[in-house]
Amino acid sequence: MRRPLPKLPSWLPVDGYILALMGTVALAALLPASGPAATVAEGTSTGAVTLLFFLYGARLSTREAMAGLRHWRLHLTVLAATFVLFPVLGLAARGLVPHVLPPALYTGLLFLCLVPSTVQSSIAFTSLARGNVAAAICAGSFSSLVGIVVTPLLAGLVLHGDAGGFSAGSLLSVVCRLLLPFVAGQLLRRWISGFLTRHKKVLGYVDRGSILLVVYTAFSAGMVEGIWHQVSTLRLLCLLGVEAVLLAVMLTATAYGSKRLGFPREDRIAITFAGSKKSLAAGLPMASVLFGAQAGLAVLPLMLFHQMQLMVCAVLAKRFAAHAAATDTAAGSVAETGSAAEVVVSGARG
């Protein structure tokens, strides 16, 4: 009798899109674009990145983001975790070079620490954990908006010696290929938002397909340049260990830091998830602009960290939800006991 295939535990999510990204990396390793094909792939990838950030700008509701300003303490806390604490930890990890991490992987790890927070998964996990979903939406939107400008500026400050040719020309390229399309999307939002809403599913495939194209182009260039000979299996395992420590530190810092700052439980959950995550969707296109042919190794730490954060935060979200349910049940029991006591006392008085 044929046995059914074993299934992964429900608490251990494997993002299907990560599998698609890994498949794209494998395709680039087996069939890298070279010569005229590489020129076509690079040009198409450039157009795809421009389209991506135009769509990001057109989708982001500035009115909703501005409405969240009343919760400014929460947003500042998330931004500080994303663009201050993360980069500081990334810079501190420089001491691991070259004995634990080779320079190329460290550059990718440092870039990971500079990208904005993710939006979708932060909202999903905050909702599952019964946290402040509205705050998670605004915090993710603020982080994405700020990251369009701050991430390239931070990269210019801390990656000048590691980015393989990072220069003022790279910053100009960021402005032309990322910032200007984003601003154009914002300006045209009032006229095209209806179209984007009606075709949301199709445009979602466009988003993901564009990022897969960016990954294929970057990793193909890496294969042609021979950069993959710099990395061994042992170094990749070391990278995973370093990223696990980085995620643990950020989850601990955001959870306990928000508690010390006096935030209520629902806000602490939103801060924990939004402040400890990094956006794959924003980071991959940025890396293709900033690193060029070196983008293959530069985005590998971000891809691995993305999957790791999904798995760990899924477990935490379910634990938060279970704790909230237990607390609500206990509170309900106390309330019922109090009501019963009041009835007994009233009866005795009568």
What does this protein look like?
The chain contains 13 helices and no strands. The protein is globular and about 65 Å long. Helices cover 78% and strands 0% of the residues. With 350 residues, the protein is an all-alpha fold.
Features:
350 residues; mainly alpha; 13 helices; 78% helix; disordered N terminus; disordered C terminus
Distance between the termini: 73 Å
Count helical runs: 13
Multimeric status of the protein: single chain
Strand content: under 5%
> Quick one: biggest sheet?
none
Overall pLDDT: 81
If you compute it from the alpha carbons, what radius of gyration comes out, rounded to the nearest whole angstrom?
Answer: 23 Å
Structural class by secondary-structure content: mainly alpha
Shape: globular
Low-confidence spans: pLDDT under 50, at least 5 residues? 1-6, 343-348
Spell out the helices and strands N to C: HHHHHHHHHHHHH
Give the beta-strand count.
Answer: 0
Work out the helicity level.
over 70%
SSE layout and pairing:
Blueprint: H1 16-30, H2 36-59, H3 62-67, H4 72-92, H5 103-112, H6 120-128, H7 133-158, H8 168-198, H9 200-225, H10 233-260, H11 265-275, H12 280-291, H13 295-349
Helix pairs in contact: 1-9, 2-8, 2-9, 4-7, 4-10, 4-11, 5-13, 6-7, 6-11, 6-13, 7-8, 7-11, 8-12, 9-12, 9-13, 10-11, 10-13, 12-13
Summarize the structure.
The protein is mostly helical and 350 residues long. The protein is 78% helix and 0% strand.
